[in-house]
Amino acid sequence: KLFFTDYGNAAKVERCDMDGMNRTWIVDSKIEQPTALALDLINKYVYWVDIYLDSVEVVDYQGRRRHTIMKGRQIRHLCGLAVFENYLYTVNSDNLSILRINRYNGSDVQALARLDNAKEIRVYQKRTQTAVKSHACEVDPYGMPGGCSHICLLSSSYKARTCRCRTGFILGSDGRSCK
Questions:
Q1: Looking at residue 171, what DSSP letter applies?
Q2: Which of 43, 44, 115, 141 has the fewest CB atoms below 10 angstroms from its CB?
Q3: What is d(CA 125, CA 146) in angstroms, rounded to the nearest whole number?
Q4: How far apart are CA 81 and CA 13, in angstroms?
C-alpha cells in the first residue's frame, strides 16, 4: 500500500495500491493541513503531523482508533516524521533540531541533535523492515521486472501487478510491452 496526505480542497490522509488503484480516504474529518507522515509497519498505524491544527495524530490502516498523540504550539514547526520502537522522531524546522517524542502519550520530548537544513527524517534499522516475500514484480529470466518492459507496480496484493510505461510511451495490448 501507498499512504499519502493531501490538503488541497479537502484535507485528508489516503491509501491506495502501489499502482494507484483502490484509493481510500482513511482520515477526512477534523484535519486541515496534514504534512509529515510515518507508518508503523508492524502494528499497522499511520501517524501524521497537522501543522494547522498543531497536532500529531494516529489511526490504524483502516482509519479507526484515531487519537491525538500531542497538541500545542511546539507542533507548528515540525516537518518530517519517523517511527521507531516507542518514539516518533521529527525535525523542528524553526531551530533545526531533531526531536524524539514518546508515541504513546506525547511526553518525554527530547531534542537529540541540531542539523542545518534538515527537512526530513528516516530511521533505517533491520527491525523496521518487513520480510520480503516473492512478489509479482520480481525480475523474469529476460531481466524484465514482472515481465513488464518498463515499470512494474504491485497491485492489490504482492501476487498481482500492473505494468506502466515511461513518459512518451503507451502500453501495448499485451499489457506488458511499451510502444
A1: B
A2: 141
A3: 28
A4: 15
Q: Is the pLDDT of residue 134 over 90?
A: no
**pTM, two decimal places:** 0.83
Q: Which CATH class, in words, describes the domain spanning 132-178?
A: mainly beta
Looking at residue 91, what DSSP letter applies?
Answer: E
Q: What is the rounded distance in angstroms from the CA atom of residue 9 to the CA atom of residue 75?
A: 23
Q: Containing H/E element for 89?
A: strand 87-92
- The C-alpha cell of 113 is what? 541533535
- Specify the amino acid at residue 16: C
Question: Are 74 and 109 spatial neighbours (Cβ–Cβ below 8 Å)?
Answer: yes
Question: What CA–CA distances, in Å, run from 129 to 81, 96, 123?
Answer: 17, 27, 10
How far apart, in whole angstroms, are the C-alpha atoms of residue 53 and residue 35?
A: 11
Q: 111 pLDDT band (50/70/90 cuts)?
A: confident
Domain ranges of the chain: 2-128, 132-178
Best CA proximity match to 137, nearest among 16, 3, 15, 18: 18
Residue 127: phi and psi, rounded to 5, are -70, -20
CATH of domain 2-128: 2.120.10.30
What single letter denotes the amino acid at residue 78?
A: L
